[in-house]
Amino acid sequence: MPTESNGPLRRPKTSLTIAPVTTWNRLDAPWRHAMRAAIEAYLDDSAPIGAVVFDSNDRAISIGRNDFERDRLAHAELQALKGVPANANREALSLYSTMEPCPMCTGAIRMMQLRSLHFAAKDPAAGSTELLSATAFMKRFACDVVGPSDAGMEFVNVALMLEYRTRNGHRRWRDEWSSYLPEAVAVGEKLAADRRFTHWQRHAIAVDAIFDEVCSHIE
Ligand SMILES: [Zn+2]
Questions:
Q1: pLDDT 10s digits, 123-164
Q2: 77 belongs to the catalytic site
Q3: Taking the CA of residue 168 as centre, how many other CA atoms within 13 Å lie in the half-sphere pointing to its CB?
Q4: Smallest Cα–Cα separation from 120: which of 158, 75, 64?
């Protein structure tokens, strides 16, 4: 986990250069589920965040997507966790989220006692996975935390988040995002200026095509 206590969080400069060319077809199954949920939420005019719970047999047992614009607490991770069957072996479950969880969802992950958490993109504004080691209670069940998982996927998620935020006039936290991954912020703002969301929505562009289009901006 990156641990910088002073100044803005910055993405390690080397990470983008070691990433393979990311395309939809190269995504692992959990990430296809999570990214599909994220882009569907986005096309439904909410924040582009999706999450999926996988069991130890590599089955998706619950999927959640952000519905923040209609319900402040409808975060993708919480939606996915609430869909886990009561009889599931929770300690064998893994949560995949397209964005680093916020304090509320990090708390929910702790309460569910999941085996592992994978997130695609660091959230330099609200991401709070460090809380999993903040207190004795939080540390009592070890949850493996892996993220950011893939530099290309992180780029797409940050770019779509900035497009969403720019289009909706949410300027707060832009500086945190820009300090962390300025290339993706620039692409997100260009997508907004080019009104790509309107094009994608009006022409019912498929989520995999949207993902690959944003990937094509990675230099
Ligand atoms: Zn959350």
A1: 999 999 999 999 999 999 989 999 998 889 999 999 999 999
A2: yes
A3: 16
A4: 158
Distance 96 CA to ligand 1 centre (A): 13
**Residue 102, number of CB atoms within 10 A of its CB:** 20
Helix axes 29-43, 151-167, angle to 10 degrees: 10
Distance between CA atoms of 64 and 101, rounded to whole angstroms?
Answer: 13
Q: What is the mean pLDDT of residues 62-86?
A: 96
Question: Cα(37)–Cα(118) distance, rounded to whole angstroms?
Answer: 15
Residue 121 parent element (H or E): strand 116-121
Alpha-carbon gap, residue 46 to 38, rounded angstroms = 9
Instruction: Give the amino acid at 53.
Output: V
Residue whose entry in the numeric block shows the structure tokens 């910088």: 4
Write down the residue that tokens 């997507």 correspond to: 65
Q: Which of 116, 84, 100, 78 is nearest to 157 (CA)?
A: 100
Compute and round to an integer the Cα radius of gyration of the chain: 16
User: Residue 168: how many CB atoms within 10 A of its CB?
Assistant: 13
- Assign 52 to helix, strand or coil: strand
**CA quadruple 61, 65, 70, 73: dihedral sign:** positive
Q: Tell me, in angstroms, the distance from the centre of ligand 1 to residue 59's CA.
A: 23
User: Pick the catalytic residue: 4, 40, 69, 77?
Assistant: 77
